[in-house]
Amino acid sequence: MQQWLQKHHLRWKIGLIIIFGLLFMANHVMAEQPNGVKTISNWEMKWGGPDDKIQDIITSSVKDQWMTIESGAEMPDKPKDVSTAWVRIQLPDQLPKDYGIYIDSIYAQQVSVYIGDRLLNQVIFDFLYDEQRSLLPISTEDGGGSVYLKLQTNMDRLGIHSDIRLDHYTSLTHTIIFRDLQNIILGFAFLFIAVIMLICSFFLKQKQRASWISLSLIILTLGTIFLTYSPFLYANFTPFGALILNTFDVSLAVLLPSLTYFFEKIFDNGKFKWIRIFRKFQIGYSAFCLILMVFNQLNHYKFIEIYIFFSLTLLSVIMIFQFILIIGLSIVYVIRGNREAVIFSSGFAIFALMGTFDLILYYTNNQKYQFFLWKFGVVGFIIALIVILGRRFAINQEQMSNYSKELEFYNHQLQLSEKMEMISSLAASVAHEVRNPLQVTRGFLQLVAARTDDKNKEYMTIAIEELDRASVIITDFLTFAKPQLDELVELNVSKEISQIEGIIVPLATLNGGRIIVNVPPDLHICGNSSKLKQILINIIKNSIEAFQVDGQIHIWAYEKDEEVFIHIKDNGEGIEPIQLRKLGEPYYSTKTKGTGLGLMVTFRLIEIMKGHIEFKSQRFLGTEVIIRFPNMTVN
């Protein structure tokens, strides 16, 4: 999954740029005033009854019942016992051909439009939604006439809350199409992303799936809210209006607990029980609201006031509490240095900032401004959530990789320890049983060699040498099986290395090489002198045997982080990476006639002296051995 995200990273960026571009274009087209557009400066309004007829309104001579409403002024509040309002709009005397009249915001569930006594259009919402738009064609013959609107509702709002515009019908058609283009683009973009994420969730591990699906639900419900919030769907798909409205309520009911659950999985992860309790409360409350919605519809909206109280009034209070809770906890995590909390807070700050700008523009434009910046804030917030989830996946992937490496290392160490234990027991028993017969055989060979001729004496000497070599191997076995440091004393590293120079320098010279030693005199470790010399001689002899032309060994030491480091570096033939990983394993050797016991003993002695050994090598360039011991002066 992580590789797939990395592979398609550029495509996601391009997609986001296209979405933002379309949104800005939609907003520009929506906000742009077409050439020749006119605004009706005022109209008249009166409260009426549901049984009022258009003929009675036209012939009515009572003038004082009509209120003059100036464009941009506040609409009068609807009286509680009124459900009908009439609006009269006076058209100009001269109207060009193919003109139209457009009202952007009408609050009513039923709108009937007349020119004179002729019914032009009627839209009825038999569900709880009261925001409509109206676009009507008018002809030159309608000039000087009046347009009547009968507005009816069972809700709290009633009237026209926007300018009334006159323009060419084609231009107004473009305006009404682009009016909701932002919501449509954002809605379908979010839905597409959410569906892709839900499909990808099948390929994730169970530990990652919960946070991934919760974020998918957040994006899915926000996309649905963008679409179902727009009056475009209700105006063009009126028979499905109740279903669209219910989809909005369901999306909101799923969004809030999903957001809390995502925050809980990313940041809290069970640390605070009351967050989990609040999330469970939200799930229960959302389920209660959905049951109440179904019950209300089955009873033909008889309990509409109860439903509005729980699904709007009380839910708004819960949302405010939820946002305060999330913001407060994210600030706490930011103070603690949590980078994901910084990203989350930044995304939420973008959302809040865009919403604030929208409110400022709304009030500075006499409340005629159409909110749109908050949508970009939502996009920024969602991007922040996706970044957080991607970062968490990357961290989990890195942790899994580290755990895998550690598990492999400890498994290797366990296998090696088991091998060492078996070999140690076997080596100790075999060495004790074989050493005595070898010594007896060597003694008799010496006696026979003293009494035989020169020819047989040469054979006897060879046999004794081979017995001595076998004895050395047995001694290595015993050292490996049961290493013992007879005496632990303070050792001066410089002095110990200078004492073995007399052995290793002539050996290096005989093999056509040289040794360079650079060890400070004030480095001290705790150990056994003879065993330390055995360790160094074994390693240096291996370097000498790896000499090529103009062989060289560089030995240096220093103190760092309360440890003494000893480096032995040669320019020999080097070791392959595969061979390098096997060094120190039982009976493994890079030499054709080697037993591997030398390095096994070296590793064991270093371990007993609480040290560590590390090999670095490159083929045909040489090998470097790094040995670390605790610094004696620190202890």
UniProtKB/TrEMBL annotation:
Keywords: ATP-binding, Kinase, Membrane, Nucleotide-binding, Phosphoprotein, Transferase, Transmembrane, Transmembrane helix, Two-component regulatory system. The keyword Nucleus does not apply. It comes from the Bacteria. GO terms for molecular function: kinase activity. The chain crosses the membrane at residues 184-204, 211-234, 240-263, 283-300, 306-335, 342-363, 369-390. PROSITE patterns: HIS_KIN. PANTHER family: C4-DICARBOXYLATE TRANSPORT SENSOR PROTEIN DCTB, SENSOR HISTIDINE KINASE. This is histidine kinase.
